[in-house]
Design a protein that fits this description.
Blueprint lengths: L2 E6 L3 H11 L3 E9 L2 E7 L5 E7 L13 E4 L4 H13 L10 H5 L2 E4 L5 E4 L2 H8 L1
Parallel strand pairs: 1-4, 5-7
Antiparallel strand pairs: 2-3, 3-4, 6-7
Length: about 130
């Protein structure tokens, strides 16, 4: 099965900068003026999932709550530390998560649309123990 998570945005350029330049994903492709939509595909090549972000004349109206999060598990503690450093260097401050688990096991940030992203070292810590 292949997974695509699609989301509309009002600022495709800022979203691409955040997910590619800061978080380290790849721009896998994109399109312009397809039925009045522009879009990009972001993920990691060779995997069976990706994000699709679209922009059109219709403005995005995001509705989510504080427990709606995307969780990223860097592969190593070094990768985790580098990602946190990159986020902070781009003046993206961590925020407090309503779910205490994420405050104890990672750091939460907002993407340009206000969606919550958690960066957690849990997988890297478990892999390094094993």
């Amino acid at each position: 099965m292949f997974l695509r998570v699609a989301r509309h945005t009002n600022n495709l350029e800022a979203i691409e900068d955040f997910y590619v330049d800061i978080l380290g994903f790849e721009r896998l492709g994109g399109f312009e003026n397809h039925n009045n939509y522009d879009g990009i595909f972001i993920g990691k090549s060779g995997l069976d999932w990706h994000f699709e972000f679209t922009q059109s004349q219709t403005k995005a109206n995001h509705s989510f709550d504080e427990d709606d999060v995307i969780v990223l598990y860097p592969k190593t503690i070094l990768d985790y530390n580098e990602l946190i450093k990159r986020l902070l260097q781009h003046n993206i401050s961590s925020i407090h998560a309503i779910n205490p688990f994420w405050n104890e096991n990672g750091q939460m940030f907002l993407d340009p649309d206000g969606y919550r992203i958690v960066v957690s070292p849990l997988k890297a810590e478990i892999d390094e123990i094993n």
